[in-house]
Amino acid sequence: MQSSVTVTPAALPEVLLHVAVVRPVFLWGAPGIGKSAMIRQFAEGLGLECVSLLGTQLAPEDLIGVPQIVDGRSRFCPPEQIARDEPYCLFLDELNAASPDVQKAFYSLILDRRIGMYELPDGSVVVGAGNRATDNALARPMSSALANRLVHVHLRASAADWLTWAVHAGIHPWIVEYLTQRPDHLWSPPPKSEEPFSTPRSWHMLSDTLASYGDAVSGPHGTEIVALLAHGTLTATHAAGFLAYLKTVRNAYGLDAILKGDARWPAAPADRDLLYFLAETFRARMAKDLPADKRHASPAVRQFAFRAKALLVELAEISLEIAQLVIADDEHGNSRLPGWFLVDAAKDMPRLVAARAGK
Fold first, then answer.
1. pLDDT tens, position by position, 320-339
2. Which of 13, 27, 39 is nearest to 153 (CA)?
3. Which residue, 163, 242, 249, is CA-closest to 206?
4. Structure pTM?
5. Residues 62-91: tens digit of each pLDDT
């Protein structure tokens, strides 16, 4: 299931606070973006114990319970994990990955808040979560009867929200600094093959492993260690970018220094990965700082645009291929940079080249 209307992690608690307390909610989202953790935090904020049931590990009798003879009649006894006296948050994780029989067993619990003779205590909330079929994750079609019993909320990853959390959560400073420069590398679509891919969870894992190695990641074999960890947790291109970023840290390179004229594009063949990283960061900076309409550009922004055009010429002299990547459209054919800047660059580049040749 896909939706053009999504919420960020920062906005989710308020949505749940107003919706989950009156109707069961199903939270959709890609793997690794923090769905489960956010639901547990939501329950904790309400002062409720969070009871998690994993859909892929359940059988129908795990919910309905087993029959017991009472006064000559059979009665189903729901499991102790569900049948509680105090209100709680029932978290149905990977609900849409459960078998059809298990999904069916949830019908009355989700809509009527009861199983057999047991009713959820007043004040309890029911929240489900799962991945989408397009995420190449284990997901089964959700029956219309089940889907119609839930309010569907779609969560998307947000670099701004994650970085705000990361600063206070002890995430490794290299990761915070890198994703501050490259927020688009926080998440990537799950691949169709078995390989690591970038998510908030995988960046968190990388942070934990870097911390576990301690000072060794800054030692003589640090590059090899970080390469092993990064390629074991992230999308390959993001791992390469992260390694190139660390090279800028260790070699006193940086885009800001290049923009100010205190440093030049690295031109050595051995620094090709570094050049590529800086060029990508340069493109991301222009996409962020240049307005869509030139009329909205302040004098400082116009000065930045002028400097950016000059740097494009310098970059093209080192690698025309990488310079072309900076101004190239994205994979969907959409321009990454404002049209007015590209037009100005096309006009000014010959003049800039001539000016540089005359120096």
1. 889 988 988 888 888 899 99
2. 27
3. 242
4. 0.73
5. 777 767 777 777 676 778 888 899 999 999
